[in-house]
């Protein structure tokens, strides 16, 4: 490994850890500000837990930090950062670029999933990652899942993602938005998971700095726009019927994660900590 | 198709519909008898809905009747009987016996899933089916999912299944019990789904009457033993903590159904009604 390779891994990791710290601080601040329904409850605080990944032979091979908050605005939010390395299983290596001949890999990522108390506040997901085999690439995205259609929230979210993408070429945003719509889709119900956002994978343009900047900008755009949406909606009153609707919509989220999400399957297949993978699951769900 | 073929299809279908009527009547009777927690609520009654299956070309190709009850003992119980026919998709046909050359199929089945109000009453699943391509076979099984380990319930259930299997040869029960333990297993958590029961598939011994008798006997054993278990436990008091534990255990049930259950995948791949397939989902679930 060259000094450049080492430096890039470190910078990607630092970027994700720094974004994690910023998101956790903002989300805790929002908990403190809250004056709407459930204000009598204590404001939430993040709890951090170390997680460990195990290789096929049972040995430890990196791990991460799972930050989870259960609050009065954020019913359950997980912000996971993990940095792992090891060997992909033979079958799996065939499907991963640059791993066919040499199954060793290294990966760092941040993953955020928020399920909210107030049914009028959209749920959200954001994930960015840097993956290294004999090749290296970035992947990631962010998407919004409103429980009730809301044009203002959706268009704010899309505009933020577009601002992150626009410096990277005129087609970038449209391409990643379409990719997101195609990825976050439930074929068995023929319906989208939510309002979309952006999604990209195997990003390796040949200009590492430019690719890294895109990933960083998507994270910063997310850290900017999602708190705006939460603050706008968290005071809005809701009823038991709204809550019921939210819990049913969360069922679709579970169906997507367990049936179709490649990230979940990747985590399970590479032996990552089950609690860290399934922190994405909503805290309460109904299939009435 | 010979008269014998036609007669067998009709008898299998009649058997499943008759079992459905018996189960629904018994479960409604249990609702009426209830004197434990939630007795102030109205006793549940089954509601029947016709479901339709659609072929790849969009045409209707059989259907079924979904019987669902939401009660004070049975929080949500679905008893589906369906009789469908059509053509398997080319990819799927390769994996189904007798369908490689001719993708036409006919199938009749009964499927029962009960999620209970009282955390001390086990959830349960029972399914039997008769499948016809250029070959024909039976499949099915029944398994118990206690939320708290309970030796008495589990051993009653296992004993009933053994009584159904024993007339069919000395190894039958042991073989189907083991098959059940292997099938209802969550690899990602390395844990069994519940206390097990019996499971079998592609049963075609060459003696159709004998095979049909086994399937019928498994259904009758289930209709005998599960109501006994429900009646024994439904009056047992429970706490909020017991309920929480139940909702968390139900999460495992969801994970199994969406990630690993071939029955769910078969239904989705053959275009069956999504509500009928997912009636198996628990009404309320937590991933805290």
Reconstruct the topology from this structure.
Two copies of one chain form a homodimer.
Chain A (H helix, E strand, L loop, with lengths): L2 H31 L13 E8 L5 E10 L4 E14 L2 H4 L10 E13 L6 E10 L3 E10 L5 H15 L6 H12 L1 E2 L4 E2 L3 E8 L4 H26 L6 H20 L2 H8 L4 H4 L6 E3 L2
Antiparallel strand pairs in A: 1-2, 2-3, 3-4, 4-5, 5-6, 6-9, 7-8
What's the number of structural domains of chain A?
1
User: How many angstroms separate the termini of chain A?
Assistant: 54 Å
Which assembly state applies to the chains in this document?
homodimer
- The ordered string of helix (H) and strand (E) elements of chain A is HEEEHEEEHHEEEHHHHE
CATH architecture of chain A: 3-Layer(aba) Sandwich
User: What structural class is derived from the secondary structure elements of chain A?
Assistant: alpha+beta
Contiguous runs where pLDDT drops below 50 for at least 5 residues of chain A: none
Q: Helical stretch count of chain A?
A: 8
Biggest sheet, spatial arrangement of strands of chain A: 1-2-3-4-5-6-9
Largest interface: A-B, 21 and 21 residues
Say what the CATH topology of chain A is: oxygen-dependent coproporphyrinogen oxidase
* Helical content of chain A (DSSP H or I, runs of 4+): 40-55%
């Amino acid at each position: 490994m060259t000094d450049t390779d080492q430096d890039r891994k470190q910078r990607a990791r630092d970027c994700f850890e720094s974004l994690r710290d910023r998101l956790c601080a903002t989300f805790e601040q929002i908990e403190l500000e809250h004056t709407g329904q459930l204000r009598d409850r204590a404001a939430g605080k993040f709890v951090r837990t170390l997680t460990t990944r195990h290789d096929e032979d049972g040995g430890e091979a990196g791990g991460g930090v799972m930050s989870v908050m259960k609050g009065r605005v954020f019913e359950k939010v997980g912000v996971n950062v993990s940095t792992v390395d090891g060997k992909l299983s033979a079958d799996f290596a065939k499907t991963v670029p640059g791993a066919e001949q040499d199954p060793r890999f290294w990966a760092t990522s941040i993953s955020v999933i928020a399920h909210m108390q107030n049914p009028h506040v959209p749920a959200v997901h954001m994930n960015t990652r840097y993956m290294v085999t004999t090749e290296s690439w970035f992947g990631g995205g962010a998407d919004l899942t409103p429980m009730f259609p809301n044009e203002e929230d959706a268009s704010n979210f899309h505009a933020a993602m577009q601002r992150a993408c626009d410096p990277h070429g005129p087609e970038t945003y449209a391409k990643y938005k379409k990719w997101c719509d195609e990825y976050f889709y439930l074929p068995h119900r023929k319906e989208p998971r939510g309002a979309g956002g952006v999604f990209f994978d195997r990003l390796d343009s040949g200009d590492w700095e430019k690719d890294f900047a895109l990933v960083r900008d998507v994270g910063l755009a997310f850290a900017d726009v999602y708190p705006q949406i939460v603050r706008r909606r968290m005071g809005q009153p809701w009823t038991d019927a709204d809550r019921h609707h939210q819990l049913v919509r969360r069922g679709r989220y579970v169906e997507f994660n367990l049936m179709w999400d490649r990230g979940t399957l990747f985590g399970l297949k590479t032996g990552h900590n089950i609690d860290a993978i399934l922190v994405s699951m909503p805290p309460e769900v109904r299939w009435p």
